[in-house]
Amino acid sequence: MNLSLATSAARAASAKTLEETVVLDVGDLIGITDYFVITGGRNDRQVRAVVEEVKRSAKAAGATLLRSEGLHDARWVLLDYGDLVVHVLDAEARGYYALERLWSDAPRVEWSDEDDLTGAAAPSH
């Protein structure tokens, strides 16, 4: 279910933003979670819309939100579902923190807007 939840969260985020949404398999690198979903919004309103859509989708999938941080400022919102952590950043914060580059050793998971699960993680680039 972990990968399914991650790709479902990515699809939910992608439905609310034109920004790239990335799923990283970080389980072997950090051990406290299995997947990161990293996405963004162009402004605080869009960040909040993405966050709400991800939360709605995760709840419908039966996932429990353990904690969230950053919603007040909506520059970098973190949603912790245990095996999945979703990062929703505004454009400025995403460029500054460059999480995809920071976690470039983590394999990227290929996902589709239509499919629930595409299978194995793709090699990182």
One letter per element, helices H and strands E, the order comes to HEHEHEEEHHEE
Biggest sheet descriptor:
5 strands, mixed
Structural class computed from helices and strand pairing? alpha+beta
Query: Taking strands numbered 1, 2, ... along the chain, how are they ordered across the largest sheet?
Result: 1-2-5-4-3
Q: In percent, how helical is the residue content? A: 25-40%
Shape: globular
CATH class: Alpha Beta
Number of helices: 5
- The percentage of residues in β strands lies in 15-25%
Mean model confidence by pLDDT: 91
CATH topology (fold) name: Beta Polymerase, domain 2
Q: What name goes with the CATH superfamily?
A: Beta Polymerase, domain 2
Describe this structure as you would to a colleague.
This protein is of the alpha+beta class and 125 residues long. The protein has one domain: Beta Polymerase, domain 2, CATH 3.30.460.10. 36% of the residues lie in helices and 24% in strands. The chain contains 5 helices and 7 strands; from the N terminus they run H-E-H-E-H-E-E-E-H-H-E-E. It has helices at 2-14, 27-30, 44-60, 91-97, 99-102; strands at 22-25, 35-41, 67-69, 76-80, 84-90, 108-109, 121-122. Strands 1-2-5-4-3 form a 5-stranded mixed β-sheet. A hairpin with a 6-residue loop joins strand 3 and strand 4. It is globular. The two termini are 25 Å apart. The model is unreliable at 116-125 (pLDDT under 50).
